[in-house]
Amino acid sequence: MMGDMTDPNSDEYASALDAADALRSFRTEFLIPRHGDHExxxxxxxxxxxxxxxxxxxxxxxxxxxxxxAVEGHFREPAPWMPYHALVREPLAALVGAQPREVVAMNSxxxxxxxxxxxxxxxxxxxxxxxxxAGAFPSDRHALESQxxxxxxxxxxxxxxxxxxxxxxxxxxQAIERAIAEHGPRLALVLWPGVQYRTGQAFxxxxxxDLAHAAGAIAxxxxxxxxxxxxxxxxxxxxxFAVWCHYKYMNxxxxxxxxxxxxxxxxxxxxxxxxxxxxxxxxxxxxxxxEFVPTPGADGWQLSNPPVLGLAPLRASLDLxxxxxxxxxxxxxxxxxxYLEQLIQAHxxxxxxxxxxxxxxxRGCQLSLRVVAGRGLAGREAGRDLFDYLAVHGVLGDWREPxxxxxxxxxxxxxxxxxxxxxxxxxxxRRTA
Length: 433
Fold this sequence. Notes:
By secondary structure, the chain is α/β, with parallel strands linked by helices. The chain folds into two domains: 11-31 and 325-431, Aspartate Aminotransferase, domain 1 (Alpha-Beta Complex), CATH 3.90.1150; 58-322, Aspartate Aminotransferase, domain 2, CATH 3.40.640.10. The chain is built from 13 helices and 19 strands. The chain has helices at 11-19, 55-69, 89-96, 109-120, 138-150, 155-158, 173-183, 205-214, 234-237, 308-324, 326-347, 379-392, 416-431; strands spanning 30-31, 34-35, 38-39, 41-42, 51-52, 103-105, 129-133, 159-162, 187-193, 218-222, 241-244, 259-262, 352-354, 367-371, 373-374, 377-378, 395-396, 398-400, 404-407. The strands form six sheets. The chain has a seven-stranded mixed β-sheet, with helices on both faces. Strands 13-14-19-18 form a four-stranded antiparallel β-sheet.
């Protein structure tokens, strides 16, 4: 379809937006999957980010060092392995708005969540409860339920799952405030997402942390869908802890090493923790003494030496985020999702329902969509049919039960032309009997 530059549904319009994009060259820094003779329209950065071209060089550096230096690679420049995790510390802290000693890259998200709860979920008979959102990512629910049981309490009464109060399954801040006020005297922990994985709703972390603390509870956050998506100010939020993964918007590869934040007020805490030798004070670690002396800050929660091959891709991704700038990325993200919303409202309003909040400040890169009807189908059946049609035609989003297609234009590598391609594909599906 062709048109003039004033028609948002024209190639010229999308091309003009992309030509004016200061970040347009970053797409060439990524390996875009192919579909036939063309690039795929990839909208799954909220599930697995694309591979930065720079990853291979960082991994090969580690492999070459291993081949040529073996154990001496732990100590020799460049990029010695012993302090390898420290290479990502400052760029990661800058990305999430934290002090360097408040962050560490280690383990996986759910492992880190359990390690944080060992220290920060300390239930008593008077305060045994955890507040989370209903419909949370299952791994979080499993972790919280198992921690409650481990401490001898009952998830049926002590895992409080707040139901959404808004029409599309999203949460108002008033509902969160009411729940914390209602259950406050029993709350040990409020564990909330930075961005809800199914709906794409973003939350104001500082408000939630303030409410939790005012009620006498710990405030923790799962930022799996927020890091690399939204500008964060974790230190200023006052959160006690946060955990996240790096394989989504952070493009660090499948099963990538995860991230963890512990606020500086807990840097020298005497709270209990599960200890491992890499969390021991680095100045005396290799004296091999029996007593555990934790490193101050988030490093003190480490268990084992860093997985160097696993951290190498994160270095490549952080290089890109440093060059692009999170505020610039956020501005482009708002333009991409705004363009997607504009096209859906103008051309697909009878086909797609947007679940994600319409206010740009209440969402990130992702628009969650329900299929209203098409090709004589409705509801979940129509949604699965559309999802499969899109994949066959080189447009890849992802499906989340029971009936949501998630489309996430990532500002580092998606263009406005990708968004237009998605809309055109939905229009073609709708026309096909």
